[in-house]
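=== RUN LOG ===
request id: a7f3
mode: sequence -> structure
chains: 1
length: 78
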Amino acid sequence: MFQEFWARYPRHVAKKAAEKAFIRLVKKVPARFIIEHLELMGCTEWRGRELRHIPYPATFLNGESFEEREEALEDELS
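=== RESULT ===
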C-alpha cells in the first residue's frame, strides 16, 4: 500500500522517512483511509499550490490526526 501512497503523493522527497511514518500509521488507521484522505487533500487544500508549499510526505503522515478524521467520517456515514 505504501507504493500506492507514494505514487499519489505530489511531493517525492524523503521516501524512507515517509515509509516509516506510513507503516507506523497503518497500525492505527486503515491504509485505504490514508489514501482517501490524500485524495481529498489533493483535490481541495493543495490544489494550485506550488510543491514547496505541500508538506513532506512524512510530515503529512505524522502531523495529521487520521484517527479523529476517521471517527468523524464514520459518524457522517452512519
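=== NOTES ===
Residues 3 and 69 are 23 Å apart (CA to CA).
The longest helix spans residues 31-43.
=== END ===
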